[in-house]
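On to our target:
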Amino acid sequence: MTTVEQPEPTGPVAGRTAKGPAPTATIDVDRSDPAYRTWLKDAVRKVQADANRSADTHLLRFPLPEHWGIDLYLKDESTHPTGSLKHRLARSLFLYGLCNGWIRPDKPVIEASSGSTAVSEAYFASLIGVPFIAVMPRTTSAEKIRLIEFHGSRCHFVDDPRRMYEEAAALAVDTGGHYMDQFTYAERATDWRGNNNIAESVYQQLRLERYPEPAWIVATAGTGGTSATIARYVRYMQYDTRVCVPDPENSCFFEGWTRDDPRAASDCGSRIEGIGRPRMEPSFLPGAIDRMMKVPDAASVAAVRALEKAIGRKAGGSTGTGLWSALKIVAEMVAQGRTGSVVTLICDPGERYLDKYYSDAWLAEQGLDIGPYAATLDEFLATGAWPG
């Protein structure tokens, strides 16, 4: 099923990363050296210990009328030590890079990121004592930049988000470091069959609920790694759950999925930080996804503000993109007389975006009118009917 809410963007095809390991300078470490192996074992232990001492994230209820017979849950990934869903990804990427021999003592790790992955990777780089450089758009929120620098890492800014990949790869060669390349390795680094991945965690937390197997899981896509993990796990475990991926404006994922076009591209970056890409990323797996929606940015902002009214929590714009789509799915279920559960994600905290999604001045500057979308949500939550 395809839902179109806004014309998909088009644009020239951006450059793709090469297959295989991301560009790295000549390796100058003897991997049989006892000192290196001692460092490696200690680094892996520290990263694994982070997971061991971190409790699982909460599954929150979004209040809906009881008589609808539908439960909506939000997996609160903002409670990770670095405050976002990307903490899981960064941990997996560091273990992947360490065990592959790509991350080495005293050599920098470089990442192309719109912010949250870089915050989490900066944390893990500090944990194991290697330098970290985040290549990111100049428009990244000031709070994310502050958090990256708080962990002792450096930000390298680009004016065109499509150039992040090239800049990161070049920095890896120039510094002798390793380009982590989350957009290629996100779907490979995570164990999608289980091992307490996000999908397994959701099902474990739902096991005592009245609808333990959700009808839908809604997951936005930046790298595509989370949606790939969830969709693969659902199929592996033979569940009937469907997976929906909402896509923001200025992202090509929706176009690539609907047209089965791996070369789909957008000519500018997403306003919703952390999701949407100007090219079809290697970790985005269209074939694993059951449905996509195109969500206007103003709808995403209206949804995060509705979330704050409903549960008293601020969240980032990507959470709003997912929540808007989840609520639309709930509306369809109500209209069809179906019961069940729907799950979406709180990706990161809204305090990182007070100067954006919670700023009326920013909305005016961007030409975004959230009024009609806020009215849609208010009417739906009051009546159970989706306007229009």
